[in-house]
Amino acid sequence: MFLNLTKKSSFLLTLCISVGLPYLAFSQPALKEVYQDYFPIGVAVGARNLTGDEAKLIKKQFNSITAENAMKMGPIQPVEGKFYWKDADAIVDFAMQNGFKMRGHNLSWHEQTPKWMFIGKDGKTVSKTVLLQRLKDHITTVVSRYKGKIYAWDVINEAIDDDPTKSLRQSPWYQILGDDFIIKAFEYAHAADPDAQLFYNDYNTEFPEKRDRIYTLLKRMIDKGVPIHGVGLQAHWSLQEPSAENLRAAIERYASLGLKIQFTELDLSIYPWEKNKRARKPGESAILTPELEQQQADRYGLVFKIFREYKDVITNVTFWNISDRYSWLDEYPVSGRKNYPLLFDTKLQPKKAFWAVVNF
Length: 360
Description:
alpha/beta, TIM Barrel, eight-stranded parallel β-barrel, two-stranded parallel sheet, globular
């Protein structure tokens, strides 16, 4: 079924290009339909994306939604006890009205956490008791508000240190609470919504040394009876990584724990991965050349082939942003450099990468 459909779509694309006509959206296959026997296909959005042409593309192509920023701790509770619900509510309402599965992202992170969370009224660092209560209040309030609407939460985000000689990141959460902040966050979320699936979410999860440290953390949580149901692999990748071998090994390693696997923040940068911010160098390209577009298509084709091989353990694949019109990778980490990491171009038209994903 899908093969015939996508061959027809490829033919229509070629025909339209040859006669100089735009390739209309109605002739595109829908990702959510092509992958209906595999896993839901999601996208990260903001409230700004819920109207206009982007909303039409979201409805056409996807069946799962994650809030890109609206549910993070800082945006949703910028001042203690004062919650900003408008954007998060709008995203959840959009999901419910259009039959989308809704993922929650995230309940605790070392970034985008408001400073007040760690500071007492005396201006000093709060005690463990105070911080645990603040964490509990935040998680209980947010999760309870969306109980029955959000089926899965990224409870803890990026707790593993980037330094391969260390285990947990030396964040204020860890410095004040130790690893109790992870255990308690999952317990608080589970108490607020016992039916929600709870995930640990991180990046570079396919690199063997970090994979093993994440595995150790997850195994320790399971052994302690922590209510964890899955692991989110962010999948901020490039044309160079991860290798097929490392990707398969990571999926199998995490799945051996009996956890659900979701690829939560997928994009494929056309540039090699960098973390430290820098200025754009003279002569450094910021153009999606035909060669780079083909390499990206090949890469997307490879990773989705692997995803399909593991459909029994993968329960969601979510793209981080809708199209190349906007990506969090624009200007990051290189100022003045645009990225083109997604399946749709700046005009919301399918790229070669899209066809590599749907043609199989």
